[in-house]
Amino acid sequence: MAKKNTLKYVILGLLRQHDLTGYDIKKLFSCEIGDFWNSKHSQIYPELKKLEEEHLITSRMEISGKKLEKTYYMIKSAGIDALDKWLSDPLDEIQPTRDDFTLKLYFIDHRHDQRIKNLFSEEILRHQKKFDYLSARMGELFSSRENQEQNFGHYLILKKAILRENTQLKWLKDEYRSLKNN
Amino acid sequence: MAKKNTLKYVILGLLRQHDLTGYDIKKLFSCEIGDFWNSKHSQIYPELKKLEEEHLITSRMEISGKKLEKTYYMIKSAGIDALDKWLSDPLDEIQPTRDDFTLKLYFIDHRHDQRIKNLFSEEILRHQKKFDYLSARMGELFSSRENQEQNFGHYLILKKAILRENTQLKWLKDEYRSLKNN
DNA sequence: GGAGACATGTAATGCGTTACATGATTTG
DNA sequence: CAAATCATGTAACGCATTACATGTCTCC
């Protein structure tokens, strides 16, 4: 987990698409990108400065309104090279999910422990919300075939996430039902 | 990620089942527990000492062979209380997957980029291996109905993980096929 | 004019990895 | 008797969160 500095490549990837401020990047993590990555602004701003020192990105200042300074960052060719290299690197070992539903469930031994039902009903709510959000985004972003082709990776990961949530929800509801009938 | 100290509860949960050495705990992370949690020994040993200082666990020394000292840790009632409290706490927000396949895929825009095929074939191998392992474990541990009942949480999380890998693999193979036919 | 969003920073702390370090035991 | 595994530790470092801190702009 530590020592990979994945945020670096997430930022480079986002900046390859558009010039962005730190604040813009932060906001992107609250949309479907949040399904696979998140970082706080307190980590993003220093990382942007570091990338600029490494000459992978540059910045330009813009004034918005009377005096609000916004710093837009732009990717440089060395940044694109670094991103491309990372994209071609072999994948790591699969990481543990570290998901707290699974974690807690593992430590409850008895079928009739009331806490299992509580865990399931909480988990169903969490995932229902996520499923609804992702489905809505799919509709907004990729109802046209053209958009699917133009951001193919994004389209695929969204499809993947929706399938995951759908399968998961179905399983959760099935098990929850059979827990109640016992 | 930081600031939760989940390892603490993982250790308490494991120690509630059996007395264990730090080395035993490390080894458990290489079996199906590794699907949802992993820590290095360099984090486990200090954490065990910390838990002992907090009076949640105690230890006893055993000599194995001539002079090899093994420290077994045992959970105390305060430890069980802490574990139970954690099990009843509401679940956190769903965390981002931070999975590098998804991450990389997101940043590849064009359907015909060769790197998409490479990513998929690597990912299929990773997940096939995992699926095979989990399925084997299911057979070893839970072929008897009795074992399913006695470690019900463990049984459920294994079932869940196998379903996840199975669904994922099916999707990966489908997409991979349609990528090649283009 | 106030609430809420926009916008950018730093400091303290802790989780987690990598690397360094040592010795005992088992197995072939 | 050597290699692999068992067994336990510490140190350095970096990723990540929480909290502290400040000021601007937009919209009602």
UniProtKB/TrEMBL annotation, chains A, B:
<dbReference type="InterPro" id="IPR018309">
    <property type="entry name" value="Tscrpt_reg_PadR_C"/>
</dbReference>
<feature type="domain" description="Transcription regulator PadR C-terminal">
    <location>
        <begin position="97"/>
        <end position="174"/>
    </location>
</feature>
<dbReference type="Pfam" id="PF03551">
    <property type="entry name" value="PadR"/>
</dbReference>
<dbReference type="InterPro" id="IPR036388">
    <property type="entry name" value="WH-like_DNA-bd_sf"/>
</dbReference>
<dbReference type="GO" id="GO:0003677">
    <property type="term" value="F:DNA binding"/>
</dbReference>
<dbReference type="InterPro" id="IPR005149">
    <property type="entry name" value="Tscrpt_reg_PadR_N"/>
</dbReference>
<feature type="domain" description="Transcription regulator PadR N-terminal">
    <location>
        <begin position="11"/>
        <end position="84"/>
    </location>
</feature>
<dbReference type="InterPro" id="IPR036390">
    <property type="entry name" value="WH_DNA-bd_sf"/>
</dbReference>
<protein>
    <submittedName>
        <fullName>DNA-binding PadR family transcriptional regulator</fullName>
    </submittedName>
</protein>
<keyword id="KW-0238">DNA-binding</keyword>
<dbReference type="Pfam" id="PF10400">
    <property type="entry name" value="Vir_act_alpha_C"/>
</dbReference>
